[in-house]
Amino acid sequence: MARFKVGIQLHPQHCPVDDLRAAWERADELGVDSIFTWDHMYPLYGDPDGPHYEGWSLLAAMAVTTKNARFGALVSCNSYRNPEFLAYMAGTLDQLSGGRAILGIGSGWFERDYEEYGYEFGDAPWRLKQLGEALPRIEARLKKLKPAPIGPLPILIGGSGEKVTLKLVAKHAQMWNSFRPPSHFAEKNKVLDQWCEKLGRDPKEIERTCAINAADVERGVDAYLEAGAEHLILMAGAPFDEPLEQVERLLEMSR
Q: Cis (ω within 30 of 0) for the bond into 147?
C-alpha cells in the first residue's frame, strides 16, 4: 500500500466543548497529519437545535493546545467573512501554532446559517462567483501580513464542481478536498488534472485530500489511493472514542 497522510474532521456539535478539546489533543498525540473542524452555526445532522460551536474560535484553541498536526476548517464559508479579514485571521492562527495553519475555504451551501445570521444566500452560481472574486484578495492580503506567516499557510478549496470550483482549485489552491466514494473522487481528480493542464499548473503542486467515513476504514482504503487521494480525512462525530480508534487504524495502514 502506498503511503498517505491521515487527518480527522471533528464535528463541533452535540457534545460538551471539553470533549472536542480532548479529541483534538488525543489525535495530535496519535500523530495525525491534520485536524479539521467545520464552519457552521447549527448542527448538520441530529437535533437541528442541539449544541454547536463556532469553528474559528475552536481553531484558535487548537492552535495552542496541539503541537504537531496541521489544522484548519474543512471548510470555511466564503460568505461569512471579508476576504482580507479571513486572511488576517488565518495569519494569526499560523503565528499561534508555529506555522501549522491551513486556510480552508468554499463557496458555502447551508441555507439556515445564511438566513438566521443575516447573510445573503443567493444561488450557487452567485456564491461561486463571490468565491472566485475573494480568492485573489485573500492571496494578496496573505502577502501583506505583518508578521508574515511562519508556515506555508496553504489554501485548501473544498468542492467538486467541474466547471467553476475545480478551475478555482487549479488557479489558487495548494490543497483540494472532495468526498467519497472512490469512483466520485477519481472522476473529479481527473477533471482537476485537466484544469491544471489548461491553466499551465503543475498538478503535483495540489495535495489531494478526501473525506471518508468509518465504513471506508473497515473496508480498507486502497481504492481511494488508486483514485488519486494522498491525504485521507476521517469525518468524526461525537462521541469521539471510536473515531479515534479508527484513526489509529488508518495511521497503521499509512506506514
A: yes
Distance CA 158, CA 102 (A): 12
CA–CA distance from 208 to each of 5, 17, 205, 213 (Å)?
A: 10, 30, 10, 17
Give the CA-trace dihedral at 222, 223, 229, 232, to 10 degrees: -60
| Averaged pLDDT, 117-138 | 97
d(CA 42, CA 13): 8
Take residue 101 and report the three cell numbers written for it: 495553519
Buried b (16+ CB within 10 A) or exposed e, 37-49: bbbbbebeeeeee
Cell 499509512 locates to: 254
d(CA 5, CA 136): 28
Backbone Cα Rg of the chain: 17
d(Cα 43, Cα 11) in Å, to the nearest integer?
9
**Chain segment 195-223, per-residue pLDDT in tens:** 999 999 999 999 999 999 999 999 989 99
